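Re: the request from the purification team.
They wanted to know what the chain is likely to look like in 3D before they choose a buffer screen. I agreed to run a prediction and write the result into the notebook, where they can find it.
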Amino acid sequence: MELTKQLAESVLSAHPLQDQRAVEMARNGLLDAAAAALAAKEDEGIQKLMALVEQEGGAAQIPVIGQGKKVSRQAAAMLNGYLIHALDYDDVHSDVRGHPSAVIIPALLSQLTDGEAYGDRFLSAYITGVEVMARLGESIGKAHYERGWHNTGTLGAIAAVCAIGHLKQVSQKELAKAIGFAGAQSAGMRKQFGTDMKPLQAGLAAKTAVWSMDLACSGFGGSESVLDGELGFFSLYGDQKLAERRLLEGYGAAWRIVSPGLWFKVYPFCSAAHHAADAILSLLKEHTFSLEQVKQVDVIFPPGGDAALIERTPLTGEEGRFSVEYVIALAVFGQPLSLDAFTKKAISPEMRAWMKRVNRVYDQTTEPHPDAVPKGRFTIVKLTLFDGTTISKRVDIPRGAPGHALSTEDILKKVSSVTGASQAQQILQAVEEGNDAAYLKLLV
């Protein structure tokens, strides 16, 4: 099979705008990405990255979100990708097992030079990018993530270059080569979770996409079959035979941005802990107990359900984004699961000591809910008090996930919470009108 060429042909010939629900989801994705990026505009990491980029110099072409400055196209893709993903407040997709918008949107925004606007085609390209990234996630196999790869980085560059190719309607040959350039540079490690480098991996994937398309359109030489064969991307990173079955199956018949759909977060931490967050908050609402009364908390996952939660004894709120122990402790201590709790600030010794009461348990016998998000997942939070009382709560579909989704109004409130109601309404208007140039301008 010529997967690379066939993917390029599918990307260039499909018509996502015929699906109105896909268009609506794309608009919500743009709105949610604005909230995530603007929430991070004063992040320490972006200040360090801006300083490095400014030292390097280059043409001032594309704005950096929330910074009031323009940088080169590639630098803008990197910085805006970092910003959207910086606080882990951006969307996720269960097929991707990662964060599509943090890579795809910055790569597309970097094409808006000299105020050029693409209108509805921008939305079409965004839907395309999510589609490709979800299909890559389905095709790469579970072992890819479990070995330690960060899917947002490894799959994002190829997906974003496909989005750019669809936007600009390049030739099939150019897109096939661009996919190859992106595949050759694909990287990202889960070992970096809980550090500045984790969101930078999203930014680097976006930058790689912009650079890869530039290389292809310049006529630079490269393979047009990087996804194929024993030495190809899927053989190196995952499962070639699975990819041959899944990557192109039914392309264009339905859109992954709709089903299983994007998951817009209500909490600024890893989605793998959202089930537990909903569960503990529900228990606190339904029962009366103090943190001193809690002897033990068992957080029960299916095997592998906590793979992204690599921090068991976090030292800072930033590390705590990937710690179910910290999320449980925050809630029991009566502290909100808000942006302020997940910064670089040190976790108090008292809370760190209390987190030792939280245990992870793995259950192979519990039947997953048929509509669980992600598929096959659940989390049960079970509290045992010193008097012997036990209470528990199971969550299969957390708030914000498909099946328990946020509305456009909910996402607008998320934007308003970080930028104010007036600007949020202007961003919504730009998104609804398909004015991609105005959308970018409003994020400056």
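For the purification team: The CA atoms of residues 40 and 391 lie 37 Å apart.
Please add any questions underneath this entry.
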